[in-house]
Amino acid sequence: MLTKGLVKNIGFQVMVAMVLGAAVGALMGEQASVFAPLGTLFIQLIKMLVIPLVAVAIISGAANLGASPAAGKIGVTTLAFFLITSALAVLLALVMGKLFQPGVGVDLSSVEGMFSGDYADKGVLPDAVTTLLGMIPTNVFQSLNEANILQILVFCLFLGIAIAKQPREKSKPLVDGLNTLVDAFVWMINKVMFRTPYKGFQVNPN
């Protein structure tokens, strides 16, 4: 029973596929690139679903909780979580960069022509006001297209709370529809995740 459950476990399947993928890459060499489209397909499917799922889930969650007294706390806590984790990520990147100094000693003269220097002098960190203003999307469709999670979060929370503040007879059909959309996206994500083991065959023959 335990063995059967382990075999069906997606994590176990991924590990087995990674080992098999490494073996196939070692045996086939450059010819193993024939499996590359499997990995590309998986990544594109994930990219296709993640942003719509996040947007719909946030709107649905905010709409379901927006009428409760805890809605404001949840919204503030969510925004604070994103800000804190983003700050920690930047801090970690700075520390790791200072510690390991990636790129030091590498001759970049042969690849300098591949990159533009237009933004080389624009590395100044934005101040707090600029950061806060940057959280507000001027075009939500552009934010969705660029996968700007923080701007998507702000808009979707605002919209979800606005839906919750409408009369129940008006908002209930929309909220039910949003909940159904979330379930549909989760179903789609689950089906895509079953392809994860096959992604293990996207090996790099080099």
Structure notes:
The chain has about 210 residues and is an all-alpha fold. The chain has a domain at about 40-100 and about 135-195. Helix content is about 70%, strand content about 0%. The protein is built from nine helices and no strands. The chain has helices spanning about 1-10, 10-30, 35-65, 70-100, 130-135, 140-145, 150-165, 170-195, 195-200. Helix 3 (about 35-65) packs parallel to helix 7 (about 150-165). The longest helix has 30 residues, at about 35-65. The chain is extended. The two termini are about 40 Å apart. Mean pLDDT is about 75; it is low at about 200-205.
Would you identify the regions where 5 or more consecutive residues have pLDDT less than 50?
Answer: 200-206
SSE topology string: HHHHHHHHH
Helix content: over 70%
Fraction in beta strands: under 5%
Give the N-to-C terminal Cα separation. Answer: 40 Å
Overall pLDDT level: 76
- Compute the gyration radius: what is it? 23 Å
**Envelope shape:** extended
Largest sheet: none
Number of strands: 0
Number of helices: 9
Question: Which class best fits the helix and strand makeup?
Answer: mainly alpha
